[in-house]
Structures are given as structure tokens and as C-alpha cells.
Amino acid sequence: MTDKQRPFGVSMTEREFDECLHADEAAFRSPIPTQMVSNGEYNPLPQTPKQKQVEFLIKEMADKEAKRHNMSRRQFLATSSGMATAFLAMNQVYGKMFEVDEAEAKNLDAAGDRKAKYKGQFIFDDQTHFIRDDFKEEGLLGLTKWAEGAKVNPNIGNIPTTLSRYKMDNYLKEIFMDSDTTVALLSGAPFDDPNWWLLSNDAIQNACRSVNKMAGSVRMLGHSIITPKYPNWMDEVDRAITELKPVSWKSYTIGDPFGPSKYAWRLDDEKLMYPFYEKAIKAGINTICIHKGLMPRDYEKAFAGTWENATVNDVGKAAKDWPQMNFVIYHAALRPWLADKPDMEMAQFEKDGYIQWSTDLARIPEKFGVNNVYAELGSVFASTAVTDPRFCSAFVGQLVNLMGPDRVVWGTDSVWYGSPQWQIEAMRRLEIPDDIMKKQGWKIKLGDGRGTVKNKIFGLNSAKLYKLDAQKIAADVKSFDHDMIAKMKAEYLAMGGERSNAAYGYIAKDGREFEQG
Nearest 10 degrees: CA dihedral of 188, 193, 195, 198? Predict the structure, then answer.
């Protein structure tokens, strides 16, 4: 497999690709993934023994309840009760990590009551993607692997295996029809090869304007991608400020996501970046989102000479020197998570409270005396929640307790992972175990799904970053309930539309055979 056959963001080697399967070739369809899925930027682990237990329990419980409700297993698992069943199975295997009770799984009305509880919750997804209509790189189809191997998709086989999976129509369905997402930030990525740009800066803004005009409300916001060290890169910054007027900037300090790139750079490069910060602040576009962490297992070789640019050792000084600039660190800088075994990562944390690269990020506010550094959860929440929920709770808990609940923002990296609804449900239900709280000396629990901490993470922190008046959010949510997207969603559901549970990525090959649900 050549580099140009590889999907977006993929940094794994040819041998590592040979160890993976397409999700739509190898998976039990579950509301929540039952094994780790990668978007290609890191290596997926084989299904663990505990994940196999979870899958077995989901099947067993779902078969029983589906029969009782005169439904097929697949139909049952597409309901809210099916989602609750998956969380019950996870709690049986991992301990009580998620807030759920048996009534939700057994009683479709009880599951509906929970859904009503969260109606109108403001959820701002700080990292979403789709591709332009004329994108021709078929290698992107490798991302289809996630859903089935992760066991999440009742109907993925009904979606043609074409690039349409990643285009705008399916994006709108997955994000706004099949999840509780209120507002989405549309992102992109730079590549040394211009053919691999997913969306141009113009396309990002045009998409946002089109959707918002159709909706009659602000449902989408957009980045402009910056490319430090590219020839004449500041000319594009000037054009974006004058013509495009993005809400924030996005870039990769490693340069090209395929790496290694001749355009790798640092946030604290005074000659290169400080003139940009000055210009951005003057223009009132003072938030920059930076890909950090999330590297493949062989990052030291694959990104030789540039991998250190994916660490956070350039964040503190830049944030201190530019207090008016907001630095949103995508993937919370988590290194190639679970590069070996899940229990090794958790054992390391239990021993010394350290999570590679992410803890370095969490310590920046206190170490540098800054309050303008944020952690974003795209991809890393999804992969940790389904592989080791206890680790996930420690990971999120550390960010909340060291950085503060005002400095953690929600993101899912969808549409690569399909509908983000299961991630939303997992975050609503997740709590930090008391023994971790006590040992780490933490004071802040995650709390209720609509409590102060989770409401901040889900949307209020990003509302502040992107200049949406937080005091008007409640009123805005009511307007979202009556805009065109809300009307389309109501009609979609009334006609029997249901979440496909599709996701598009990579799973590890571990002897699985395709199962029809």
C-alpha cells in the first residue's frame, strides 16, 4: 500500500495496515463499539478479553429483550433501550463506570423518559469533518473499518462503499439527524500534496453559510486552516481575515498528517508565529486549534525529526506570551494511546498519576500561570471509553481537575466515527470512581449528565470560545428546537429513521469472522 492509497491522517505502516480489517467486514452491530477503532492516526488494539465479555453480554441481554418486545436483535439495539443495554454490559465487566439502570433496558418508555431529560441540552462538537465533492483519493475509503469491527452499525451495509460516506449529505444525517449535537465546528487538515486537502478554506465557510441559511439558525461554524512555513502562508491568513471571516484557526505543528513533513513547526517560534498571533488578535479571531498527540505506534521512526512537534512542549511559552490567544489542543495531546496493553497504561497512571503527553498538557495552566489553554476530546474519548472506561474516567478527570472544568471542550472527530450519539451518551453517564478521586486528591467529580461540569464540557466552554453568548444559550436551544433542521429531524424520526450506528475506521485483525448482527 503506497502513501497515496492511505486514508486521511493515516500514519501506520503497510505491515500495520495488513493487521487491520474494514469495520464493515468484521463486526457485531452494537450501539457502543466493543473494540477499539482507529481513524488511522494510531494503531487499533485487538479486541481485549473484557471487550469480548461485553460483546457476549450485549448479545445475550439484547436477544432476551428483543424477543420480549417482539423485535429483532438489530431493531432492539437501535433503540434507546438497546443503548442502555450496552452500558449495563460494560458496567458488569468494568465495574460501575456509567450511570444506567435495568429499567432503561427493559422498558422502552423508561428509555424514552431519559431521552426527554436531555432534550434541548446544548452540545457543541468542537471537531467534525467531511470531504469536498470533488475529492478523488479513494484511499480514504479505508476509514470504513470502524463501525462493524467496533460493532456499532445495524445498517452500514446499506451505505455504498464510496466516498459518499464522508461527504456533506451523510455528515448532516450523522451529526444532526442521528445525534443530539446542536452546533458543529467544521474542521480540515493540511497536506503537502494539495490533492489530499479534505476541504479548502472557502469550502468550509461556504458549507457553514449554506447550512445556517437553510436552518435559519447558527448550526455550523468553520475554521480556516493555516500552513506555517508554506510559501506565502501569511497571504492566505490575510485573505481569510478579509474575505472568509472564520471563527478560529486550525493547524498541525507536525505539518503534513502523513509525516514526516518539511513544514513542521512550533507554537513558540517567535519569528514564525508571533506575527501571526498579533494579526489574529487584531482581527478578533483569537482561537487556534492544534493537533497534538494521537501518533502511530512507530511514531519515532515514521515521524523521525518531527514527532516532538506533536508534543506540548511548545504550548506553555506561547500561551504565556500571548494571553489574548486561546490554544485548543486537539485530542488532549494523548500520545499513541494504548500503544501496548490497556492495563499497562492504567497501571502507569495508578502508580504516578501520569498519562503520556496528556498530563503534560494538564499541568500547563499551573506551571505557566495561564488560563488560555484548552483540552479537546476528539477521538481519544471514543477510544478510551470503549477499551478501558476506568482509564477514560481518569483521563477526563485529570483534565477537569488539573486544568479546571472551564478548560475542557467536547469534540468527537466525526464523521470519521459516524454518528457521535454513543459518545454523547457515554459522557453523560461517565463518572470517576471514588478510589481514584481519593488517591489523586481530586475535588471535582464529573457529575450528572446535565450538571454544571458536563454542561460546560458539552457546550458552554466552546460557546464562550466562539463568541456565542452563553447567557442566551437557553433561548438559543429553544430556537434550535424550531429551526429547519429540527423540523427535518422530527419528520425523519416520524418516518422511522433510526441511528445507523455507522462509523468509518480501522479495527485490529484478531480472527474475527463477519457476523450479520
Answer: -10
